[in-house]
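Structure, all two chains, one model.
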Amino acid sequence: MNLVIINYGSGNLHSVHKAFEAVNNELSKPFEIIVTNKSSDIEKADKIVLPGVGAFQDCKNAILRTNGLYESLEKMVIEEKKPFMGICVGMQLLAEKSYEFGECEGFGWIPGEVIKLDALDDCKIPHMGWNEIISQKHVLFNDILQGTDFYFVHSYYFKTKTADHCIATTNYPNSITAAVCKENIFGTQFHPEKSHKNGKKIIDNFLKWETV
Amino acid sequence: MLKKRIIPCLDVDQGRVVKGVNFVDLVDAGDPVEQAKIYNAEGADELCFLDITASSDDRETLFEVVKKTAENCFIPLTVGGGVRSLDDISRLLHYGADKVSINTAAVENIDLVAKASKKYGSSTIVIAVDAKKTGDHKWSIFTHGGRKQTEIDAVKYCEEVANLGAGEILLTSMDRDGTKMGFDNDLLSNVTSTVDIPVIASGGVGTLEHFLDGVIVGGANALLAASIFHFGEYSINDVKRYLAEQNIAVRI
């Protein structure tokens, strides 16, 4: 099986690649991991990962600038329902709209908007560091205890239109989205690739995830 | 609740870990990748590499160290030292750094802070500030690894880089660095109460109480230390257990 990690110049590509490789090795390599931006590779994918670091608009433009990349993603994720995982900005891109550096449309795969975190109490922005999550019962959170810490770095968050699509939250100080899921589409605001063994467990769950 | 981060810092010279007392008298403390793996296993919340050979031609050894560390440690890695341009940042990120810290180049060319934050995202850009007390509640910035004094006020500078989009400030007290007398909490609290971005306290930690004071008195969001960990005086776990007992939220 092929696991495709989308390479559109996102800064954390190497970290994401190495973390998926490490977990895949522990599972005796069920996947061939391909880091690519080519439509021909993406259209052979069994699972797709979209990393993302930086500004929403820059990430989106970088994807749109790559010939056929978005179209292939849409074909595989929306039409063929291949399991998809977006990380940080790769997850925020799933929203309909973001307000970072002005309004910008997202993929619109999960209803909702990406808005700025409120600077309340002593909470510094960006929300940077380890924070605990509260998750709904979901196979993607198998063996993750309530209150487990994950590594977050962000100033904006995904406010989903439907509570059902938000499958994990964290408090900073208000409750904010930590993970989204809609059918075959999964996304985390935190960085599993930087969240030590619990992050690797999330990746492990994603590699084992059967969506149909 | 967001945890206070404990960050071991490795000063790297030509691919080897060293830590100086007041920036001189360097003592070798081992292979950075092996050290990083130990800290990763011990529960470090992040790792920080500071390349002190940055001005020389030996950058390639650093890239190799960063690459190997990123392949073995699945926690955030900040790399700094000799970062002068957007191209330097790109290369470090490419080799596996998650954040890049900029010191002298940001002081000399403040536009770099805005450009780097816009291009790589605020959360990727750490501004390292070396500050030394020059008067009552007054600190000046030093550049070039602490060798060159400027007239720039440290607190105002931190505020300026935060406004330009820096994601975090790594604040080192030159008066305290290597002394084990504790963080300069007066400097720290002046900065943490001024800026809205996270501040990492650095320089001077020698006891468990110093970590606590950095949080309580200084208001730090993260605490960085080097020699106290390298020479096994305290483990990362010792620090975290102590802070947890004092009701500070840490990741255990």
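The mean pLDDT of chain A is 95.
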